[in-house]
Amino acid sequence: MKRILVTGGAGFIGSHLCKRLLHEGNEVISLDNYFTGQKRNIVSLMDDPYFEVVRHDVTSPYFVEVDQIFNLACPASPIHYQYNPIKTVKTSVMGAINMLGLAKRVRAKVLQASTSEVYGDPQVHPQTEDYWGHVNPVGLRSCYDEGKRVSETLFMNYHHQNNVKIKIIRIFNTYGPNMHPHDGRVVSNFIMQALRGKDITIYGDGRQTRSFQYVDDLVEGMIKMMATGDEFIGPVNIGNPIEFTILELAEKIIGMIGSKSKLIYHPLPSDDPMQRNPDISLAKEKLNWEPKIPLEKGLKKTIQYFENLIREDKNI
Length: 316
Ligand code: NAD
Ligand code: UDP
Description:
38% of the residues lie in helices and 17% in strands.
């Protein structure tokens, strides 16, 4: 049994990770300030005596004896991370410093949830880990993109300077149950709109692409990465390499729900990447990992989740 700290544990991905780590017989501490996370995501875990819930902000130091840290605390949806961009930078940078400091003191292994956004609007396609990216340092997305880039830098520096055991994964667009219904990300937006027969909001012409990974595949990749030996630190891409246009995603969701929703077009937000697709050769080689859940199967589970939410609370 290991004692494991998950920052952002009440968020979409963090809640799935906590559940899986408990299931594997570990003691798990969820640390969250509930900015974008919800108690609802972890309430079913609270009866487990090996699960602890801490309300805390990663921008302040936190002291605890743990074996491993998964550092996920950070708003991930563009609407949420742009709401208070200074706080987003602080969360990424000070959060990384605090978690690395903790890992250094207690000799814990620490994994950083980085992002495909470090590649910006990429000019190399698909994206390999050795691509340095194409990020606007002063744009609307920079608080998130540059914050995550600095946190990768800090992880590397603590590793080389202080021998901290680190792991860096770059997560590509992930979806599934426990996403916030109003977090503004494309999968949750389209499903909520289609379930309610509202217009589906396509930003731009809808020909921009993304590659969607179901959350269970990601959690498997995270666990495998944490279990690798000290010689492999990443960064490693964790995502599904099957690429769709946003229009294709909208049509798929409308078809699966049998919705009468119509498509409406809004301007493309600034710096919105035109394409995104992970090269996962490194994850295959080092982690023996690749995603297994096809989009339709994952969407089915996600649609069921949102249907239940609406059934429980019609005003949601
Ligand atoms: P989420 O918003 O659902 O979860 C983030 C969690 O962090 C929330 O529970 C939030 O309350 C918490 N949090 C935010 N700021 C905090 C702070 N200062 N102190 C303590 N807790 C704080 O998002 P998610 O999709 O679950 O993303 C989790 C992590 O994975 C993030 O670091 C994100 O950047 C990364 N990621 C996610 C995706 C994706 O597609 N979902 C893609 C790339 C990277
Ligand atoms: N998008 C859209 N309609 C929406 C929400 C998002 O067309 O209601 C587009 C968005 O412009 C982007 C893509 O879907 O091109 C993915 O957006 P998301 O916010 O999910 O994540 P991103 O990959 O941009 O961080």
